[in-house]
Amino acid sequence: MRHPLVMGNWKLNGSRQLTADLISGLRTALAEVQGCKVVIAPPALYLAQAVAAVEGSDIGVGAQNIDVNLSGAFTGETSADMLKDTGVRYVILGHSERRTYHHETDEVVAEKFAIVKQQGLIPVLCIGETEAENEAGKTEEVCSRQIDAVINAQGVDALTGAVIAYEPVWAIGTGKSATPAQAQAVHKFIRDHIAKQSRDVAEQVIIQYGGSVNDKNAAELFGQPDIDGALVGGASLKADAFSVIVKAAAAAKA
205 and 147 in contact (C-beta within 8 Å)? Predict the structure, then answer.
């Protein structure tokens, strides 16, 4: 049985004070919540502080990116080994902002995915189409291509224990969100696409929805059978709003 996962991507936001206050608020608000895994992904500078602050709770910590190299002369980068040593367990890969602003190709994302798996960390593979691709009817084509980059390089079993986050690019940070029915249709397509190669892998893989998820639309989204939680952006920076989303996921999948 799949258990929901709600992950907060802080993006380029935060400070030592915000990190301390937000985690303290989450620990209080989520102390009695069961049945939903919770992960926060602060900027790299605050990962060590976050790992220390969540100790003794059920909140996990993830990173927003890694380098493909484990060590060496690669100024400014952070390796999977370093993240693991810090206590990080999850790594977001292929977010549309990385693909757009840093020109990360499907092949680069697949390479990073392999590194994360090899180091025993949990990859959160972001996939999704732009507004133009959506309007052109290419949603399924884009999603399958981005997943297949990993499957073709490493085999479908590489998705075992991994997380996929479907994030329609047109809904990220825009206030727009796919309707629950639209999101469910894509999530089902993703699961069915993986099932063509392994039904067992498809049934266990966590598929999150991301794209302007908030405390108002979360419950209806999580009521869909193939939506296993959310990758949350702006709402994850407020303990009260993020907690409502987590509680909605726990209640929907109870």
Answer: no
CB 184 within 8 A of CB 223: no
Q: Give the separation between CA 14 and CA 95, rounded to whole angstroms.
A: 19
Given the residues 3, 95, 107, 220, select the one marked as catalytic: 95
- The domains located in the chain, with CATH, are 5-252 (3.20.20.70)
Q: pTM above the 0.85 mark?
A: yes
Residue 152 counted as an annotated binding residue: no
Query: What is the per-residue pLDDT across 175-201, written as a single tens digit (0 to 9) for each?
Result: 777 889 999 999 999 999 999 999 999
Q: How far is CA 67 from CA 112, 114, 166, in A?
A: 7, 11, 22
Q: What is the pLDDT of residues 28-55, one digit of tens each?
A: 999 999 999 999 999 999 999 999 999 9
- Residue 11 counted as an annotated binding residue: yes
- Annotated catalytic residue 95: yes
CA distance 62 to 42: 7
**Is the CB of residue 5 less than 8 Å from the CB of residue 163?**
yes
Q: Is 207 helix (H, G, I), strand (E, B) or coil?
A: strand
133, 167, 193, 203: the catalytic one is 167
Q: Active site includes 167?
A: yes
**Do the beta carbons of residue 164 and residue 127 sit within 8 Å?**
yes
